[in-house]
Amino acid sequence: MKVVLSAIDWISEQTGKLAAWAFFLVGLFVTYEVVMRYVFTAPTVWVDEVSRITQIWAAYLAGAYVLKHREMIVIDVAFKNPHSLGRRLCETFSILVILMFCSVAVWYGWALWLKSTLAGHTTDTYLALPKALTQASIWVGFGLLLLQALVELWRLWTVGLPDAGGDREDGPADVPGH
């Protein structure tokens, strides 16, 4: 089980880093477009669409990384103590909601991607890129988030919640991949 947990953690970590670099690239693309358009009066045809596709992928790839590092929005007014049963139950409910949403998104995202792929749908732009390129990000990103949510649910009841410093109840050495 530790191998599976470590593998999912590693994938989440790598896709998070890839997402960060993708956001950086979007910034470079947009800067390039601004310079080309306003300095050289020679706008490009590719920057808008490529930037949007890159940003979509970056956003979906970042989800599992954000959950792994427990950086999603958390309101802990009533459940500040990470060791209490109430907090664990609240966290379990939150993760179950994430799992339910991810399952639906993966299911319908896959169906949409498959339909577009088989039909050969393309974007209505000059580049006419396959729509499957953007639609794949839905089921891939939510699939990764689903896997990381399963890992977090497992850890919640076997290792415990991390303290404010990021250490789990039994210490970081008991968490695979840390």
Describe the protein's topology.
Elements: H1 2-39, H2 47-68, H3 85-119, H4 132-158
Helix pairs in contact: 1-2, 1-4, 2-4, 3-4
Account of the 3D structure:
There is one protein chain. The protein is mainly alpha-helical and 178 residues long. The chain has one domain. The protein has helices at 2-39, 47-68, 85-119, 132-158. It is elongated, with a radius of gyration of 20 Å. Mean pLDDT is 89; it is low at 169-178.
Number of domains: 1
* Percentage of residues in strands: under 5%
Rg, Å, rounded: 20 Å
* Unreliable segments of 5+ consecutive residues: 169-178
Oligomer: single chain
Number of helices: 4
The overall average pLDDT, rounded, is: 89
**Between the first and last Cα atoms, what is the distance in angstroms?**
15 Å
Largest beta sheet, briefly? Answer: none
Structure at a glance:
By secondary structure, the chain is mainly α. The chain has four helices and no strands.
Keywords:
4 helices, 69% helix, disordered C terminus
